[in-house]
């Protein structure tokens, strides 16, 4: 009898895990968890990120995002060097230790407008997740998967991108009870568009910080997929 009852409970538990929701529904529930008031599209915020990596000194980045005014800036300090990149309605600006740079002097410092755009896309993408998965050019798989990763159960969404956006394949791992995003992972692809299993990285998200009503990951730890090699950690800090 005990064995029979256990089987019933186990089957019920498996059936309820994720409630057989579509990928689109899971994404909707996760967005409702992270951004319940729909603040992301009009976000105007500043926050500070500290990056620690093996065998390197800490880098502190002060980030400002104003999506309505199409403004982004990042002021990064490591040791005695402070750089500022900004993008204001598509126009970039750069400075090095308080001195504004033109394109020629910027090149001497290994700085460029392309890098300014790269930083803008990087920070707005990662801190705008999972809301950014609604952006044009993002292709969400129809069905979710149920996976166990690092000993925890997750609902997993697979995402690819239009060629103009990117060639990597991403997987997003959501808590099946709260729909909080707790892990993301990406793989590079070969010339045929197939995943390269020993490529890419996974990122573990722990703790949360609330920025303009949005629950953002407080700590992001990066690792290689191929050998679990540790790359570094980004931490949202109060400044």
TrEMBL record:
Give the UniProt keywords, A-Z: Signal
Identify the stretch annotated as signal peptide in this record.
1-18
Instruction: Report any Pfam family annotated for this entry.
Output: DUF6503
The protein's name in its UniProt record: DUF6503 family protein
Q: Which organism is it from?
A: Winogradskyella pulchriflava
């Amino acid at each position: 009898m005990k064995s029979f009852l256990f089987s019933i409970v186990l089957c019920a538990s498996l059936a309820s895990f994720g409630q057989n929701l579509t990928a689109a529904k899971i994404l909707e529930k996760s967005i409702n968890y992270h951004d319940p008031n729909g603040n992301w599209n009009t976000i105007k915020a500043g926050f500070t990120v500290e990056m620690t990596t093996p065998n390197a000194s800490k880098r502190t980045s002060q980030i400002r995002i104003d999506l309505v005014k199409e403004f982004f800036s990042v002021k990064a300090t490591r040791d005695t060097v402070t750089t500022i990149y900004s993008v204001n309605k598509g126009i970039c600006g750069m400075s090095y230790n308080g001195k504004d740079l033109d394109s020629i002097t910027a090149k001497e410092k290994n700085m460029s407008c392309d890098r300014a755009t790269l930083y803008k896309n990087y920070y707005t993408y990662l801190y705008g997740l999972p809301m950014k998965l609604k952006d044009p050019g993002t292709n969400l798989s129809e069905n979710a998967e149920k996976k166990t990763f690092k000993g925890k159960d997750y609902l997993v969404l697979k995402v690819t991108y239009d060629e103009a956006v990117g060639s990597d394949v991403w997987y997003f791992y959501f808590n099946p009870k709260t729909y909080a995003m707790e892990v993301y992972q990406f793989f590079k692809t070969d010339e045929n568009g197939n995943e390269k299993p020993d490529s890419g990285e996974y990122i573990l998200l722990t703790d949360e910080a609330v920025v303009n009503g949005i629950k953002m990951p407080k700590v992001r730890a990066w690792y290689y997929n191929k050998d679990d090699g540790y790359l570094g950690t980004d931490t949202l800090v109060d400044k």
